[in-house]
Design goal:
Subunit structure: Homodimer.
CATH superfamily of the largest domain: Medium-chain alcohol dehydrogenases, catalytic domain
Catalytic activity: a primary alcohol + NAD(+) = an aldehyde + NADH + H(+)
Order of helices and strands: HEEEHEEHEEEEHHEHEHEHEHEHEHEHE
Enzyme class: oxidoreductase
Distance between the termini: 31 Å
Helix content: 25-40%
GO molecular function: alcohol dehydrogenase (NAD+) activity; zinc ion binding
Number of strands: 17
Bound molecules: 5-beta-D-ribofuranosylpicolinamide adenine-dinucleotide, zinc ion
Number of helices: 12
Strand content: 15-25%
Shape: globular
CATH architecture of the largest domain: Alpha-Beta Complex
Largest sheet: 7 strands, mixed
Subcellular location: Cytoplasm
Structural class: alpha/beta
Radius of gyration: 21 Å
Number of domains: 2
CATH class of the largest domain: Alpha Beta
Length: 393
């Protein structure tokens, strides 16, 4: 029976392959032509993958605040662009010299790739592979300096090597992780960004110990995943901070022991947290992307051995000015991209852990929408009504 089933899958995938391999695919994509405009659903052409690249049929993609940061200009990217970086799909075809993936494999695209050769990949201390396109001057192009997307005769940029708001995308082989084919793609797409980023910031970057006190600034999909990480690490107090009190019920459900709204206090929130905990929390996490809350989170942790982790994307062209005494006294200020995980190695394991029910994703997914409702999905995020909306293609 298994043999028959395999034969059937192979037969169908061969038919499918014959239909599209090596050819340009015309499909639907959400193009962002310029900042502060809605997404335009367009027919785009997706070129076949070149050497070391793979073409993926996207099945589901989440909406993350980082996508919205590009819309508002807080995260500077070249336009026009196809955004989206939190997805899951199936390999449609592979370019020459691809060895780690084959057509039919279920995959999660990786906005932090893992080339396995650069200093960060070879070091046990880091995860930010040099092949990333997250710098302050991103190219929006594939490694050879060209794009695989065109629309109405114009080249369209890629986003952080992923671009998932499209029925088909092309990514480098080092930017896609093969996952369990039985995994529900409309859920595990969150492992492509939000969940892994928050959970890893606690377990990989901060390495929170059991019994610690933690403060989490910002309770979106990423911040709630930080809360889950703190709980998994055995933190004794998890203080959730948000200006939207509607986020508190879910934060409590996922492990927050207290929830506070800075708007309810006259004094600055770092003073409130310092009073609540005696001398400040052991670990604080900024999961918003504002410079004021980054310094508030730093000032909220213990003046000598507190660790504060910046997870929120720093707004473009803004600088922080802070009293260096905050650091001189011993605090540690860190950043965390994709939760510190070495992506291609970690993502299949995280999916396996999800399948073993070691953590949940369902509470993070408040909306599941057809891809064509992408603008509605962004409105839900902007009005604070959603945690994660998953678009199904
Ligand atoms: P989100 O917008 O869903 O959540 C942000 C939360 O912060 C919301 O609940 C807001 O109400 C709350 N908030 C806003 N302003 C304040 C304030 N002044 N004080 C307290 N709370 C406030 O975003 P998200 O969870 O999708 O992403 C959070 C950040 O993390 C965002 O900046 C995003 O770009 C970044 C991110 N970083 C990485 C990474 O690799 N470091 C990956 C993914 C997302
Ligand atoms: Zn993201
Ligand atoms: Zn690398």
């Amino acid at each position: 029976m298994i043999f028959l089933l395999c034969k059937r899958v192979c037969f169908y995938s061969l038919l499918f392959l014959a239909a599209t391999t090596c050819k340009v695919i015309k499909c639907k994509a959400a193009v962002l032509w310029e900042a502060n405009k809605p997404f335009s659903l367009e027919e785009v052409e997706v070129a076949p993958p070149k050497a070391h690249e793979v073409r993926i049929k996207i099945v589901a993609t989440g909406i993350c605040r980082s996508d919205d940061h590009v819309v508002t200009g807080a995260l500077a990217m070249p336009f026009p662009i196809i955004l989206g970086h939190e997805a899951a799909g199936v390999i449609e075809s592979v370019g020459e010299k691809v060895t780690s993936l084959k057509p039919g494999d279920a995959v999660i695209p990786l906005f932090v790739p893992q080339c396995g050769e650069c200093r960060s990949c070879l070091s046990t201390k880091g995860n930010l592979c040099i092949k990333n396109d997250l710098s302050s001057s991103p190219t929006g192009l594939m490694a050879d300096g060209t794009t695989r997307f065109t629309c109405k005769g114009k080249a369209i940029h890629h986003f952080v090597g992923t671009s998932t708001f499209t029925e088909y995308t092309v990514v480098h082989e080092t930017a896609a992780a093969k996952i369990d084919s039985a995994a529900p793609l409309e859920k595990v797409c969150l492992i492509g960004c939000g969940f892994s980023t928050g959970y890893g910031a606690v377990l990989q970057t901060a390495k929170v110990e059991a019994g610690s006190t933690c403060a989490v600034f910002g309770l979106g999909g990423v911040g709630l995943s930080v809360v889950m990480g703190c709980k998994a690490a055995g933190a004794s107090r998890i203080i959730a901070v948000d200006i939207n009190k509607d986020k508190f019920a879910k934060a409590k459900e996922l492990g927050a022991t207290e929830c506070i709204n800075p708007k309810d206090f006259k004094k600055p929130i770092h003073e409130v947290l310092t009073e609540m905990t005696g001398q400040g929390v052991d670990y604080s996490f900024e999961v918003i992307g504002r410079i004021e809350t980054m310094t508030a989170a730093l000032a909220s942790c213990h003046n000598n051995y507190g660790v504060s982790v910046i997870v929120g994307v720093p707004p473009a062209a803004q600088k922080i000015s802070f009293d260096p005494m905050l650091i001189f006294s011993g605090r540690t200020w860190k950043g965390s991209v994709f939760g510190g995980w070495k992506s291609k190695d970690a993502v299949p394991k995280l999916v396996a852990d999800y399948m073993k029910k070691k953590f949940v994703l369902d509470p993070l997914i408040t909306h599941t929408l057809p891809f064509t409702k992408i603008n509605e999905g962004f409105d839900l995020l902007r009005t604070g009504k959603s945690i994660r909306s998953v678009l199904v293609l």
